[in-house]
Fold this sequence. Notes:
alpha/beta
Amino acid sequence: MTWPYATPGIPDELFVREEGVPMTKAEVRAVALSKLRLPRGGVLVDVGSGTGTVAVEAALVMGEGSRVYAVDKDPAAVRLTRTNAEKFGVGDRVVAVEGEAPEALYKLPKSSRYFIGGGGRRLPEIIKAVFDIMKEGAVVADIVTLESLRLALGALEEVGAQYEVYMVQVARSKKLGGYSILSPLNPVFVVAAYA
């Protein structure tokens, strides 16, 4: 399967999923990709790739000659990222790597674009490592909890980065009986920082 459209936003249900492997939802993905300011033929490092949705869409947006290094410590996530990259025809552009950030980031080619989709309590270390590696470019993180947001902003302040925070709150319509209602998704903070 390929995504024949020029815009991101592949419906979540088109990706292969597995219980316990996180996924960045379509609407959040679209915002994150726009804030990354991806160049054609560019290189992105996707930290905590989960299901691989950001890696796949970034590879599609950046087009031929691009490369996405998708890093995750969970072997199931690495396998799913490869499966979804093949499904959407970008298996030659997405390199799924098993490893834990931030250590794994130093083993990859340098990039000017980083997406952080995980990190937990190591999020500050990951952010500092990215800014240590990246001399200029964009870093975008999607964050679910207030505690992680506080950690991320603290790390960005420490490295002296300029940043913006967006809260993405989406509700999708669904049928219930003979009516349509809005079903909310968990709000997500999208933090975009530029160097």
